[in-house]
Amino acid sequence: MHTCCAPCGSAVFEFLESTFRVAAYYYNPNISPVNEYKRRRDELINYCEKVSVPLLEGSYDLKKWVGAVKDYRFLGERSVRCHACYRFRLEETFKKAVSDGFDAVTTVLTISPHKDAAVINKIGVELEKKYGIEFVVSDFKKNNGFKRSLELSKTHGFYRQNYCGCIYSLMERRKDSAWIEKARQSCNQ
Hints:
Blueprint: H1 6-16, E1 24-26, H2 34-51, E2 55-57, H3 62-69, H4 80-100, E3 104-105, H5 117-131, E4 134-135, H6 145-156, H7 167-172, H8 178-188
Parallel strand pairs: 1-2, 3-4
């Protein structure tokens, strides 16, 4: 299961554990700066140890990720930029699943109200066909999934970040920045 952080992963682990033997795959070269990446990773490591979920970690190749989304960098959250990011991370998750002999892939990303589950699932189904491994279609935020992630975050004292993780979304939080002005200009062209 592609996992971005402990707050998102905790409720999904809880939901899936009765049906699947779950392993977490932390593949998030989009997360920036690197200390943010490490903070989320380390918290996930601690949580996975606590609940006995195996954790695998992919490489942190920020340059490769930037190359995958750079054409969309000014488009904003929930745009094609995010779709390219979902595809990038899910494709690597499928490659890892093939190499390690897993039967299925899913992602915790659909637990977030800020992520487009329909787009994530569409990408997952496309990759399922490409790699021959089942993609578990989901919208984990439904049926109080997001609410449960908030409860588990409080119970475990998880750090809850205030941006998706990428440098672009971080810069977009600063509404009066030069980045926002460049993004506005780019969208108006």
